[in-house]
Amino acid sequence: QVQLVESGGGVVQPGGSLRLSCGASGFTFSKFGMHWVRQAPGKGLEWMTFLRSDGTIEYYADSVEGRFTISRDNSDNTLFLQMNALRAEDTAVYYCARDLRGPYLDLWGQGTLVTVSS
Amino acid sequence: EIVLTQSPGTLSLSPGERATLSCRASQSISTYLAWYQQKPGQAPRLLIYDASKRATGIPARFSGSGSGTDFTLTISSLESEDFAVYYCQQRNNWPVTFGPGTKVDIK
Question: Over the stretch A43-53, which tens digit does the pLDDT of each residue have?
């Protein structure tokens, strides 16, 4: 079954760190670029970051550049998002998504909720 | 950064009616636009890419048009499962940006 499954969300204090994972199955993960997109409660979609299939090119939204880092392990079919210096406004559901011919997002995970609160 | 605006914010229609959703870009993006559908508690689903190409498995009642700065998503005859929020997204420039969404609800 072609799918993406996020994990690693939870409650973290402001200033803290969290690492999200996204496991891929049912397709050749190493051939696809990957994205992270988030959605604050009751709000719209906000693109966060992209990583090329071979891990050599990455892009970030201004709102997270310098605080978040995207990475991948193609041998384990897993995408990561390291989030540091978290703020209350980072509270959201975080989705990983597969890139379709750069960049549209054609396969999404179910999302994992990150809550930044003291 | 390219800003996308969507109108209307909410569209109230009945099943069987035609829905017309608009997306406008702050600068020309050729045909580098996609549309997504999101239902409550679910992840978004890609409907249309390159302004008019239907994604795999998307019913023919969904169609997209436009180029430059003005784009339209049309649902020819609303089915019950089509009541959702619809987002446009541009891929002309980094960063990728999404519009704020149009909610299609039942009248």
Answer: 999 999 999 99
